[in-house]
Amino acid sequence: MNKDLQKKIDQFTIEGFQKQLINWYRDEKRELPWRESLDPYHIWVSEIMLQQTRVDTVIPYFENFITKFPTIQALAEAEEQEVLKAWEGLGYYSRARNLHSAVQEVQEHYGGVVPNNVKELERLKGVGPYTKGAILSIAYNIPEPAVDGNVMRVLSRIFSIWDDIAKVKTRKQFEELVSVIISKEYPSEFNQALMELGAMVCTPTSPACLLCPVREQCHAFYENVQHELPVKTKKKATKQVQMAAALLYDRQGYYYIHQRPSKGLLANLWEFPNVQLKEEPSFTYKKQLENFICDEYSVEITLTPLLGTIQHVFSHLTWNISVYSAEVIGSSNMKGLIKVSEEQLKAYAFPVSHQKIKKMYAENTRSE
DNA sequence: TAAACGTGGCT
DNA sequence: TAGCCAAGTTT
C-alpha cells in the first residue's frame, strides 16, 4: 500500500462508511432477476453476462438463459451451438464458450458445485480477478474484493486516487484497498453496494453527489474534482475494414451459410459468405467477391447489383460491408458451406452484422 | 503491457 | 455526429 493512500485510510472511518453504504443499498437497490436467486450458478452466469455490458441489455438474456439452462448440469450437457444461440446479440462470444467449458469442468471435477475458493475459481475459463471476487462474495459471502469499473470510479473519488485505472497495477491497488475497508460481516452487500452506488449515484459523467450516502467522507466531493476522476487513458480509433458479402439462396428456398473459425473474432458463429476486400482493388468489389466464393466454396453464381451497404462498428474495428445476393444454380462440388431452410436458419447463431445483411436482403426481396 | 474481443445507448 | 462507455478476460 502506498504511503499517501495509507494516510487517507488512517483518517477514514471504516465502520461508518460500511454502515452508511450498506443501509443505503438495502433501501435503494434495484430488483434484478439475479438478485432473486442465491444459486451460485445463477450468480456466475449473471457476472459473466454483465462484463462490459449494461444491466438493461442483460436482463432478458439472463432470464432466457436460466430458463433454458436452469442448472450446471443442463448447461454442461448442452451443445455449444445452443449456448451461442442463447448468447446471440449479446457480444463477446468467447464469454459464452468459456462459460460453457468452465461449467463442464465444474460438473466433471467438482460434482456440479461451483467452487468456493480462490484457487479453484481462478482456474476456470472466463473467471478473472473481478468475477472470482464477485462469486466468492455474492454467492458465498466471503470477504474478497470484486473490483470492476464502478468500484474503481467510486473509490478513486472517495480517496482521491489519480492513478490510471486502465493499468493492472492500479486495479491491484484498489483490491488492496477494498480488502481493508470491506465489511467482514456483510461482504456480499458491501461489494454490491459499491457497484450499485457507481451505477446509480456515482456515475461517470454527472455524479449525483447530493444523493450520495457517503459524500461526507468523499475527498473528490470536498475538493470538487468528482468530474475529473477516475483517470483513464483513451482508446485508439477503430480500424476501417472493407468487406463484401453475398446472401446465397436457391429455388428450393435454401440459404448457404458458413461457420467462422474457432478462434478470433466471432468465433464459431455463422455468417453469409463474405470476403475482406483489398485496399486498391484491381477488380471491382463485386468481382472480388464473385471470384472468392467460386474459389473458396466451389459454387457458381452471378451476383445481383449492389443491394446496399452496412456499417458495423466493433470495439476495435469497423466493417463497411457491400451487400449482394445470388441464386445458386449448381452446388454439387460445394465445400465449406451448408445449405439450410429458412426454418433451420433460426437455430444458428449469427452476429448482429450478418443479421443486418439478412434484413437488407429481406427488405429488397419484399419490394420486388 | 497493450491489443483483441461486440453491442447498443447516451451525450 | 462521433466518441465514449458498461458488473472484464485472454493472449
What does this protein look like?
Its cofactor is [4Fe-4S] cluster. Its EC number is 3.2.2.31. Belongs to the Nth/MutY family. It holds the Pfam family HHH. The model has no long low-confidence stretch (mean pLDDT 95). The protein is elongated, with a radius of gyration of 25 Å. It has helices spanning 3-10, 14-28, 40-49, 55-68, 72-77, 80-87, 94-109, 118-121, 129-140, 149-158, 168-181, 187-200, 219-223, 285-297, 342-345, 352-366, and strands at 239-249, 254-259, 270-271, 274-276, 308-313, 317-327, 338-341. 46% of the residues lie in helices and 12% in strands. By secondary structure, it is α+β, with helices and mostly antiparallel strands. Strands 1, 2, 3, 4, 5, 6 and 7 form a seven-stranded mixed β-sheet that branches. The structure holds a DNA duplex (11 and 11 nucleotides).
